Amino acid sequence: MSARVVSLQGVSKDYGETPVLTDITWSISSGARYVVLGSSGSGKTTLLSMLGLLLRPSAGKVVVHGEDVWQWPEKQRAAWRTAHLGYVWQDAGLLPELTLLENVNLPLHIRGVPRSQWNGRDLLERVGLGKRLSAYPHEVSGGEGQRAGLARALAGSPKLVLADEPTGSLQRKQSEAVCELFLELQAELQFGFVVATHNEALLRYLDAEPLWIFDGRLHNKPPREEML
Ligand SMILES: Nc1ncnc2c1ncn2[C@@H]1O[C@H](COP(=O)(O)OP(=O)(O)OP(=O)(O)O)[C@@H](O)[C@H]1O
Ligand SMILES: [Mg+2]
Fold it and tell me: Which residue's CA is the closest to the ligand 1 atom numbered 24?
């Protein structure tokens, strides 16, 4: 039922001299629900970028359908990303010159989905922004922008949603609301997710398996000094 979507096999990443991630082996299935916790600079964005086929590892393989995706031409990786993945970024990542509706429909436009099947309007209604379809990103609040970012990530009905500090710019109440909405949508649409954050509170809001990233590796327990 929950097919494997993407796997990291012995993946390491360094930027020049600096090793960031070391020998990570991890398979994500379509039913995955993970929260990856780690302090600033621990490698969360690096990890998500590799899971998202956006960043090439220094060693090891990123595997999809049994194949090393970095042996594929970029066009094939891009097609796979748009077909199967949704991304939520810390600052929502909305394009400032497009309205919320245009932003949410953009991935469908890129995928060549016929206009009659664009579901941006429904998704924005679903996240409570049905009345702000033609607003521009600078005209909405941080929380509204994040909700629009969530709608955009879901526009292509992805199997897996990768969310990098999805509530990083929000106050506690807004964070909680965005997480609640995220869970509701997950139950409805059945996508897997990996949420990366430095905010342990998200563990309470999201019903997910926690993983900690430190010393360049993934662990199923927090680092000792933070256990108190
Ligand atoms: N393009 C790059 N060139 C050089 N070093 C980089 C680059 N991107 C990230 N790094 C370094 O790699 C480490 C991990 O960065 P990463 O962005 O993955 O951390 P993070 O856990 O997402 O941090 P934050 O919580 O601040 O977003 C950091 O030390 C960072 O300075
Ligand atoms: Mg980051």
Answer: 40
